[in-house]
Amino acid sequence: MNQPPRFADYLLRLFCAPHLREEVLGDLHERYYLKVQRVGEAQARRRYWREVRAYVRPSIIRRKSTIQPLLRTGRSEFPLTSVLSPDTIRNYLLIAWRNLRSQPFLSFLNIFGLALGLASCLLITLYVVDELSYDRFHEKADRIYRINVDATFGGTEQSLTQVGDPMGETLKKDYPQVEEYVRFYDVNGSKIVRKGNESIDERRSVFADPTLFNVFTLPALFGNTKTALNAPNSVVITESTARKYFGTPNVVGKTLEVNKAPYTVTAVIRDIPQNSHFHFDFIFSMKNVKYDWGNYLTSNFQTYVVLKEGVDYKAFNRNFSQIIEKYLFPQAKQKMKMVSAKDFNRGGNRLVFTLFPLTDIHLRSDRRAELDVNGNSQFVAVFSAVALFVLLIACVNFMNLSTARSAKRAKEVGIRKAIGTSRQSLIGQFLAESILTVTLSLLLALGFAALIMPFFNELAAKTLSVNRLFAIPILPFLLLLPIGVGLVAGSYPAFFLSGFNPIAVLKGTMGNNLRKSNFRNALVVFQFATSVILIIGTLIVYRQLNYIQTKNLGFDKEQILIINGTHALGSNVDAFKNEVLTLPGVTTGTLSGFLPVTSSQRNGRTFSKERVSSSDNRIDTQSWFVDYDYIGTMGMKMVKGRSFSKDFGEDSSAVVINESMARLLGYSNPVGQKIYSGGDATPLTIIGVVNDFNYESLRKTIGPLVLNLGTSTALASFRVNTQNLPNLLKQAETAWQKMPTGVQFSYRFMDEAFDTMYRAEQRIGQIALTFAGLAVLIACLGLFGLATYMAEQRTKEIGIRKVLGATTIGIVTLLSRDFLKLVLIAIVIASPIAWYAMNQWLQDFAYKITTEWWVFVLAGVLAIGIALLTVSFQSIKAALMNPVKSLRSE
């Protein structure tokens, strides 16, 4: 026994400076053994503890910051070996830099691959932060809500952003929780604004209540926004609009001619930020709206409310049932055989009002009559996942290449451990190398991001800038990124390399273990599994887009020229149509603002078989006004009956319905049957049934539709021959200029308008393709580096095999076989994951493709082919090497 107290020694080592430990412990132990002989063990142990306590003083605890040779005593004092000391960190970085320079090719692969992954991550981060920032610039953003309504009538479901005009006022009057409200009307309606001798068709306009500026934060440059919309014929415009029409922003008091009526500019506001779910250039006073006020049953006003602090909007939603019972049903009783909510709900009818948070509108709302094209939370999640996967693949590259180089670093680690370097110090060194590599990669990634940004902006329909990376909230993320990624990517190599047994390394008995790493193989599988998932996802997205483009929509969208703003022609619209019809290459034409693309007019009405209908048999439909030539021009087919014709004078009270409407009516042959619109007493006669055609996105099923013979001159559409299109457009513009409109000639083609309906899907397809390509490229860089290193490690083996008669093909197969096994495992793992994920995405479409087996086979073949090309280059190079040189290699 007779040993000093071990715990006392442990405490002394803990607080004593490293350069004094040996001396202090030696003196204490020497005195301890002398005291054991003189006073006994028990007394010696007690005195030993007192002496240990006596050493707890600054001169013993204080660490030396530099190495100081003490020539007088012949001893040297050494500094603290903490991994956090400046000298240690400086030494780590110096060694890391030397290691990077000693293997330039593998270092380049590491840095370049990480830079691509980081650049992808930075670009997607900018995109996600921008998408999440929508409408958050309003001071009351967390308390502003839009009133939504979900209605089901006669089996037809509608999700609307508009409610009746009194709803906001009623909420404020009846419920003290409501602080303020504002209504929008006629959003983005066409306004003809005069500018000198020119008339401009402006569509970014709205009628709004004076309370607009109490709800939303829209700073004024000139004028008083508190009173700006109080009077009729007053308008608030944006700064850019003021410069456009007057050349200067200070135009308060000046007059604009809008739709031939004078409007006084009462205020000029800053341009509405891009990250807003609405964008208006003209805000007109609600006092100019002529409307049947006080109607709860209509849905024409976007209404926003501000709740007071602390009010739970979900709990507040329960109040809408009282609103319906108190205000909506009394009005409904005047037009329907309905006496109670129970009567209304019978037959599956439903009417639900809810408050929807302002900050969720852009990403989580896809309803009829949205104020602008919204984003998609699914796309944000997909982009984030793709960026994360690409970054993980780049990190996996780093891990793989770092552990693969372990054979060359093994002797270094063994020698360092043999001379006393702790494992903690080695881990610090390898993590420092990792962080340095990531920092260099980040600098390169910033350059990549700046170069790619214009292409990415076009791809994502954004106006992002690299400068936003250096602003809050992204800057802290950017500063922590090298440390975070460095620790993630460098942790496994650090612990793997620092755990080597120095004796085994220096004896050379770890060679096989270094070459065989199950974890490294798992990383390769992860890389290629992720790449295969992205490849499969891209193939399925493009197949769905191709299906959308080629599906029989029930009408012919090709070669239809749409001329905008024809309502400005007034009484001359028929003359213009007739003149265009005389042009060479024009076959038919129609005047109607209602087209089977979402960028055109929509009009909802209810129809029933009876004059006074109960809620049970009312059918909520789209009701479009068209002319005699509409069905023929659109290339639609009559299933039963006939289309509108000038040969039948009674067609003014006739309608054509689609097949979906016929099914809901329940008639085996609806031709000749009568239907009623709302509470109208005059019946409408069904003269024909047109084939079902998609007039909404393919995400939605085809709903019931009624075509009415009537006036709707917002658009003129012509079926044309595109062989001599430039000349035809020039002649059409000449015909337009003959008319006294003053409005510029504007046109588009229906197939282009149709494509805009699926721009988001096209965008996600292009982004998926881009990042799938990046992921595959990064994975191939890692595989190439790994193949290069493994071929180098087996140089002597290859030489011996060649001397013994091995063929080039045999050696290539030998070197490639293990990698191909890993890729096959990756394909097996990736396929079910991709199948599930893409089936979930396709669920959003009412009309969609099926996930065919050959897509997965094609993705697998692509992955195998890419891996073979990557590995075979190094395999062939190694196989063709002169065996004499191979056997000389160390």
Descriptors:
elongated, twelve-stranded mixed sheet, single chain, alpha+beta, Permease_put_prefix, six-stranded mixed barrel, 890 residues, 4 domains
Rg, Å, rounded:
38 Å
Uncertain regions spanning at least 5 consecutive residues: 64-81
Counted beta strands: 27
Distance between the termini: 52 Å
Query: Pairing-aware structural class of the strands and helices?
Result: alpha+beta
Strand content: 15-25%
Outline type: elongated
Q: What is the percent of helical residues?
A: 40-55%
Q: Number of DSSP helices?
A: 30
Walk me through this protein's architecture.
One of its GO terms (molecular function) is transmembrane transporter activity. Pfam families: FtsX (PF02687), MacB_PCD (PF12704). The chain crosses the membrane at residues 108-129, 379-401, 430-456, 476-500, 521-542, 767-791, 819-838, 853-873. It comes from Spirosoma endbachense. This protein is of the alpha+beta class and 890 residues long. It has four domains: 6-77, no CATH class; 144-337 and 350-364, no CATH class; 517-552 and 755-890, no CATH class; 560-754, no CATH class. Strands 3, 4, 5, 6, 9, 10, 11, 12, 13, 14, 15 and 16 form a twelve-stranded mixed β-sheet that branches. It is elongated, with a radius of gyration of 38 Å. It starts with 5 loop residues before the first helix and ends with a helix.
